[in-house]
Design brief:
Rossmann fold, alpha/beta, 3 domains, cell shape, Protein-Tyrosine Phosphatase, Chain A, 20 strands, UDP-N-acetylmuramoyl-L-alanine:D-glutamate ligase
Length: about 475
């Protein structure tokens, strides 16, 4: 690195007029570095810019590939001359550098859009406010067990672009966030899954649920009658937005409230999945590895994907019966003095916390809080009143949680570390109850990520 600035020493090459098309990558995390790798392999002149510091592992990757980069700044002279820009999903469209690019007419796209250009693999794209990771992992598990040559990417695991650069898969299961969808234009999902739409990330959507819903519906853009669209027929916001969108793909709804002809439904605790009227899959919900109402929906969605691909019923049943959920999603940690400790750190919005509370059948000491993204806690009120005996706030600013629940629970305590929260919970929890970490908020005020938050919680429980 240059001693007097934060630009890598190869930058001087980028100042010259390049014969090759120039790709600039904004953000040097998993997504950005993967895109840089693929861009270099495709022969582009590549430059990477991160407004923050770059993690050592990604910096080493860029240096090993001899890709010029900068950190802790965006140098306009090195960015605005791009032919095209690949933007990491965490960078908002309102960021000054993105506004400058748009004003100059430089196309700004997502890593997913960029990577899809260079693979013939078919894609199963899963989005929704809640359950994306679980459903993505379950779908991937089913396809792997069935022997398909399948990769896992998107908002989970290794970068899609990096895998396209290195590996030749026939299928990819992609977890797709609204932030990714916002920068996808020509991309087409062979199978699109929309699990639900509930208020989340509204700070990125002018606090309008309609804007967020419109972003989620981009999952079906460019689909044809040869493709499949799988969605929850019980979800109110999905039903509203579906009335405004023309769906070209074959639609497969899933519901636990009513029968559907093609798709999935629940009747007397038996799931029925059919995409072909002559070959219905049935499975008792008691045989599902993932329990709770929300996981019936997730399992239905994955099961429909498997049936669209005409996988064997026996393989689908086995896969859905043996699957182990991802870390930090309703993850059992320990039972101490007849009190269960559950890590649901991945619950970064109110709806996820609703699902978590709904799935617990005991009294609850709830640990919640963090970076509030415009949360409306009203939907939690009935569950909090009936189940929650104490709330332990884990965040720097807990005022909105106090305001929301001070009339519904007797005890609300502020804490500022996972260790402190667990210690307080240990003293408040009674035998037979559950200590549930389900924050309903992002983690970045006190932790590096929801994984860091969950890991610190688990470590603190194990110290009890």
């Amino acid at each position: 690195m240059n001693s007097n600035n934060n630009i890598s020493q190869n930058q001087s090459q980028s100042n010259t007029t390049a014969v090759r098309s120039r790709i600039v990558i904004l953000g040097a995390g998993e997504s950005g570095v993967g895109a840089a790798k693929l861009a270099q392999k495709q022969g582009f002149d590549v430059f990477v810019s991160d407004f923050g510091s770059i993690a050592a592992i990604y910096k080493a990757d860029l240096q090993s590939m001899n890709i010029p980069f900068e950190e802790n700044q965006h140098t306009e002279a090195l960015i605005l001359n791009a032919t095209e820009v690949v933007k990491s999903p965490g960078i908002p469209s309102k960021a000054p550098i993105v506004k400058a690019l748009v004003e100059k007419g430089v196309p700004v796209i997502s890593e997913i859009e960029f990577a899809k250009r260079y693979t013939n693999a078919k894609t199963i794209c899963i989005t929704g406010s809640n359950g994306k990771s679980t459903t993505t992992m379950l779908t991937y598990h089913i396809l792997q067990k069935a022997g398909l040559n399948v990769g896992l990417a998107g908002n989970i695991g290794r970068s899609f672009a990096a895998q396209v650069a290195d590996i030749d898969f026939d299928w990819y299961v992609l977890e797709i966030s609204s932030f990714m969808l916002d920068d996808m234009y020509e991309f087409r999902a062979d199978i699109a899954v929309l699990l639900n739409i509930t208020p989340d990330h509204l700070d990125r959507y002018d606090y309008q649920i309609a804007n967020y819903a419109a972003s989620k519906m981009r999952i079906v853009q460019n689909q044809t009658s040869a493709d499949a669209f799988i969605y929850c027929a019980d979800d109110e916001e999905t039903k509203k937005i579906l009335d405004k969108v023309n769906i070209e793909a074959q639609a497969y709804p899933f519901s636990i409230l009513k029968k559907v002809e093609q798709g999935a439904y629940l009747e007397e605790n038996i799931i029925h999945i059919n995409t072909n009227l002559n070959n219905t899959l049935t499975m008792s919900i008691s045989d599902l590895a993932l329990q709770g109402k929300h996981n019936i929906y997730n399992s239905m969605a994955s099961g429909i994907v498997a049936k669209v691909l005409e996988l064997r019923n026996e393989t689908i049943r086995e896969s859905m019966g043996e699957f182990k959920n991802i870390d930090h999603r309703l993850e059992f940690v320990a039972k101490i003095n007849d009190v269960a400790y559950i890590n649901d750190s991945k619950a970064t919005n109110v709806n996820s916390t609703w699902y978590a509370l709904e799935s617990v059948n005991t009294d609850v000491v709830l640990i919640m809080g963090g970076v509030d993204k415009g949360n409306d806690y009203e939907m939690l009120r009935d569950l909090v009143k009936s189940k929650v005996k104490a709330i332990i706030c884990l965040g720097k600013d807990n005022k909105r949680i106090h305001d929301a629940f001070e009339d519904d629970v007797d005890v609300i305590v502020n804490t500022f570390s996972a260790e402190e929260a667990v210690q307080v919970a240990y003293h408040l929890a009674k035998k037979g109850s559950t200590v549930l970490l389900s924050p309903a908020c992002a983690s970045f005020d006190l932790f590096k990520s929801y994984e860091d938050r969950g890991n610190q919680f688990k470590a603190a429980v194990k110290e009890l």
